[in-house]
Amino acid sequence: MKEKKKSVFAKYVPYMGRKKTYMPIALVLSGTSAVISILPFYYVWKITREIFGGQLGISFENITLYAKNTFLFSLLGILFYFIALVVTHIAAFEVEIGIKKAGFKKSMNKPLGFFNTNSSGKIRKIINDGAASSHGFLAHQLPDIAGSIITPILLLIMLFVFDWRLGVACLIPILLSFFVMTRMMTKEGKSFQRRYMDALEDMGSECVEYVRAIPVVKTFGQSVKSFTRFYNSIENYKELIVAYNKMWIKPFSLYMVLVEATAFFLVPMAVLLIGRGNELGTVISDFVLYFLIAPSFGSIIIKSATFSHEKNIANEAIDRFNELFDYSEIDYPEVGEEFTSPDIEFKDVVFMYDGDKNTLNGINLKIEKGETLALVGKSGSGKTTIARLVARFWDVNSGEIKIGGQNIKAYSKETLMDNIAFVFQNNQLFKASLLENITFGNENITEKQIEEALIKSRAKEIIDGLENGLDTVVGEGGTYLSGGEMQRIALARAFLKDAPIVLLDEATAFADPENEHLIQGALLELSKGKTTIMIAHRMTSIKYADNIAVVDEGKISQYGTHEELVIKDGLYKKMWDEYQKAVSWNIKRGTT
């Protein structure tokens, strides 16, 4: 049986907390406002009837009474609508906060692999869009729902109660404008909404990455075009918006003409009725009423179209939010096994991303306590995946990974994370002081330990060169560090953690030659006595590893020490020879 689709309201209910009853209350208030707001039209009709159609003369007493009622019911309608808006705003704020809290909580509970496939810019934008769209829709559009249903029904009744002939004349442009509006609300428009959100999401994500790279862009005097993906995302967004606007120019122009054309239909009908002997005062008073009512239909149609548009945006935003976090969770035991030894073993490990072809196929590796294993191979061969599986970024599809003789699934999340240190190529620092960045996650750290970590990570000279030392704030409003300097600060954090297992993934990739030399020394220091998995493109980085595994298309094609592999025909020897050629290339001669 096909599962029934949830309404956009039902999708937001889980985030309303204790304010779930506020929405129906707001609808009742809005509906009441819609009914009350019709009454002023009736009393205006009574006033014109008194002026133009009174048989016994004009009664100023009646006119005064009708005017007071007009004012009173107008005021009451506004008051009820205002209260409805207040109620929906309170509920909308609750939903907005609820979505952000849920996004934060869900993010905290997601496996590390989730952040490998979703950039921080994308996550932040989807959470913020979900929250912002919910507020705009629930706070501003929800009160119009009841009014958009009740008001046109009451107005249609009024059209035919007072004078059906003027009612028909008034209805012609209304029906035509409604027809034009329905023609604009097509599947193409809904399809555009998804493409628009995709383009906006891509542009937002690329913008974050570009801002992070601004120091590099400014250093080399490049323009935005140097950051091709960001530039392309802007161009794609621009083309999409221009095409969409061109699509609506003619139909929306026609709609606006029809909405404002009521008088062109009412006046001829009123003249015709007067010419056929109808009482002048009655026709004029009815004409005034219909002339006032007709624009309300245009307003209602616009509100309905706006509501539909905002509903689609809100629906798309909450669907993206739910889709983002519809990511397989990793189950950890509440009380796991005790960590005994940092030796690592891969046994017939098979892994694939999202049901695609196998990324790893039958991996068997053994890394003894205190040994360093280097993983080498072409880009996309599976090196990083092997390292990240040790920390349970994802779970393997078959086979098992053991640490200390126990399957890593037997350890609690805290135990596993406490015993593994990461140093990746794109380590990020928080917008906080360097002291907070270095000691993050470590309590009761002494000044002596911090000093030792800074010396071992070769970051001491960075701190000494800053006016505020460890109290220097990193990021906007503070100090910006180079890629190599950031890596040395991240290494200081790893030294303080002092985990028995270390994962090094292209740790020198973004470092300049000077920083690379310092980082290499720090990495050797960090891996002493630790079980280490190292990934590096620079062959000198892995030359002195205890063992080297050559990864080729998801399999271990070669295994051994540098001395053993360099004399054997195979991928490692080929990579080593190419590396030697590259480093011995002479810029003057252009040859080796």
Q: How does this model look, in words?
A:
With 592 residues, the chain is α/β, with parallel strands linked by helices. The chain has two domains: 13-324, ABC transporter type 1, transmembrane domain (ABC transporter transmembrane region fold, Up-down Bundle), CATH 1.20.1560; 344-583, P-loop containing nucleotide triphosphate hydrolases (Rossmann fold). Helices cover 60% and strands 10% of the residues. The protein is built from 22 helices and ten strands. The strands form two sheets. A six-stranded mixed sheet has the order 6-7-8-3-9-10, with helices on both faces. It has a four-stranded antiparallel sheet with strand order 2-1-4-5, covered by helices on one side. A hairpin with a 2-residue loop joins β4 (398-403) and β5. α7 packs antiparallel against α8 (164-184). It is elongated, with a radius of gyration of 35 Å.
